Every structure is written in C-alpha cells, then in structure tokens.
C-alpha cells in the first residue's frame, strides 16, 4: 500500500502542474488579447469584424475537435466558411442575410455531421455564430457601441 500512495501523490502533482501551466497560458493569452480586443473595438469596422470572425472560427475549431470526431474536417470547413461569409455580410451591413446564411450553414452541418453527433455539431456553429454576430451588432450602435463593448469586456 505504501508503494501505491506515492504514485497517487505523483499523479496529483502532475495534475497540479498541468493546471498551473494552463492557468499561466490563460493569463498570458488574456494579457496579449485584451489590448488587441480593445483596439479592435475602438477602431471598429473591418478590424473589429475580423477579430470576432477569427475568435468564432477558433471557438468552432475547439468545439468541433471535442465533439465532431470522425467528420470534424467537413463540419469544421462548412462552419468556417459560413462564419467568414456571415462576417463579410456584416461588414457590408447585411445582418439579416448573414443570419439567414448561418441558418443555412446549420442545415449543412446537420447533414454532414454523423447522426450521433449532429446536434452537438450544430450547437457548436450556433455558439460560434453568436460570438461573431452579437459583438458586431452591439458595436454597430453609433452612439454607445464602443461603450457597450467595453462594458461587456469588463463584465466578462
């Protein structure tokens, strides 16, 4: 029994180190990304839309990597193209068409995903699309858009 206990401590120690490393990565990432996000919000326009499109694609990639195992590449490609096209439509001030395109992308992802994981793959695109569309629409308000985005950043 004494031989088993050190293995548990060692395993716990490795887990603790991995947790610290993950925390450090998150802190460093936030220190780098926070000024970039604030600058993109300040300038608005294409820079802001591109920032959130990249963030949405990153979220979609992570989600699909976890959920859509065997059909990840086709689902991810379809979702990424949908998000990029929606971002381009937002850039030319066509949020209704962007939303319609995302709905069509949801149907495509549902058709391409495996029957077991299709709903989860669709949920990933919904989540990523919200990350792209919501901040862009919030920032587009001419008088308080930037202040609203800063308030959102502080709350989150």
Shape: flat
Which stretches of 5+ consecutive residues score pLDDT under 50? 4-12
Based on DSSP secondary structure assignment, what is the total number of beta strands?
A: 0
Structural class of the secondary structure composition?
mainly alpha
Count of helix runs:
6
Largest sheet: none
- How far is the first residue's CA from the last residue's CA? 47 Å
User: What gyration radius follows from the Cα positions, in whole Å?
Assistant: 20 Å
Average pLDDT works out at 87
Helix content bin: over 70%
Overall tally of domains: 2
Order of helices and strands: HHHHHH
Structural descriptors:
156 residues; mainly alpha; 2 domains; 6 helices; flat
What do you see in this structure?
The structure is a single chain. The chain has helices at 4-43, 45-67, 72-91, 95-112, 118-139, 145-155. The model is unreliable at 4-12 (pLDDT under 50). It is mainly α and 156 residues long. The protein folds into two domains: 1-40; 44-155. Helices cover 86% and strands 0% of the residues. The radius of gyration is 20 Å and the shape is flat.
